[in-house]
Write a structure and sequence with these properties.
Blueprint (H helix, E strand, L loop, with lengths): L2 H6 L10 H9 L2 H6 L2 E6 L2 E7 L5 E3 L2 E2 L1 H17 L7 E11 L7 E11 L3 E12 L2 E15 L11
Antiparallel strand pairs: 1-2, 2-6, 3-4, 5-8, 6-7, 7-8
Length: 161
């Protein structure tokens, strides 16, 4: 069974959620605006997002607090997953594991999200997070996540009178 068949219950030609709609939905979230999240790119099963390292997101000067690192990783992974959904569907994070591998020290934090596997109800996704200082990227975290795929609600048809 193909991914399209798995997600749509057998239909093979499926119109996907446009990446611009995924970006708009993510950036409408207050936490995304608070972080100053920006999309560098968003395509079929991939994403790249960034945030500036700002004092209010750090726990010591110049080093991002882990919550900000997690949020950027989650947004990148689940946005990538969102690009695989059929038109009208949405998704939400249901599980993640974040591994911090180096301090998030730099000017900008960049997260690259990707889809690992898609099924009807769940999409496994991942993101690698890099701290960028003077143009040099250092891997600081990696995330493995699961997003729940949510079908649009069916409206009731006309009732018999």
């Amino acid at each position: 069974m193909t991914t399209d068949e798995a997600v749509t219950g057998g239909a093979t030609q499926v119109e996907r959620v446009p990446p611009g709609l995924v970006e708009t939905a993510v950036l409408a979230m207050p936490i995304a605006r608070t972080l100053g999240l920006r999309f560098r790119s968003l395509g079929a099963g991939t994403s790249e997002v960034e945030v500036d390292v700002r004092d209010e997101l750090t726990f010591r000067p110049g080093q991002l607090q882990a919550t900000a690192v997690y949020a950027v990783a989650d947004f990148a992974a689940v946005a990538a997953a969102g690009t695989t959904l059929p038109q009208g569907w949405t998704n939400a994070t249901v599980d993640t594991t974040l591994k911090l591998v180096a301090p998030a020290v730099g000017d900008v934090l960049v997260a690259r999200g990707r889809v690992v596997d898609v099924s009807r109800l769940l999409t496994v996704c991942a993101a690698d997070v890099y701290a960028v200082a003077d143009g040099v990227e250092t891997l600081c975290a990696t995330l493995l996540g699961t997003a729940r795929n949510v079908a649009p609600r069916q409206t009731a048809g006309p009732s018999a009178a």
